[in-house]
Amino acid sequence: MDYQKFYAEVAAWIHESNTQAIKHGLNSDVFWDWVVKSSGELCNRYNNEILVVKQMNMLIDWLEGVWQSQKGGEEHEESRV
């Protein structure tokens, strides 16, 4: 696996997730549909290698933490961007 290429794609995905969150809001179905579809596509591009799947799951968990803190849930230190 080309780790440099993969992590460049992860960085691009994070940037695009920020763009999508600003455009649609963390509470929108459009945003979460994008998260699920785009993370699945990235995993598929790398044949669902365990590192890729775990990386994307971690990013989705992080986004959920940000969403929880913004909707008045428990404050998560990692959600402070």
3D architecture notes:
About 75% of the residues lie in helices and about 0% in strands. About 5% of the residues are buried. By secondary structure, it is mostly helical. Helix 1 runs antiparallel to helix 2.
Distance between the termini: 30 Å
Beta strands, count: 0
Anisotropy-based shape: elongated
Tell me the radius of gyration.
13 Å
In terms of DSSP E residues, the strand content is: under 5%
Mean pLDDT: 90
Largest sheet: none
Class derived from helix and strand content: mainly alpha
Share in helix:
over 70%
What order do the SSEs take from the amino end to the carboxyl end, as H and E?
HHH
Low-confidence stretches: 75-81
Number of helices: 3
What brief labels describe this structure?
elongated
Can I get a quick summary?
By secondary structure, the chain is an all-alpha fold.
Topology:
Elements: H1 3-24, H2 29-45, H3 50-70
Helix pairs in contact: 1-2, 2-3
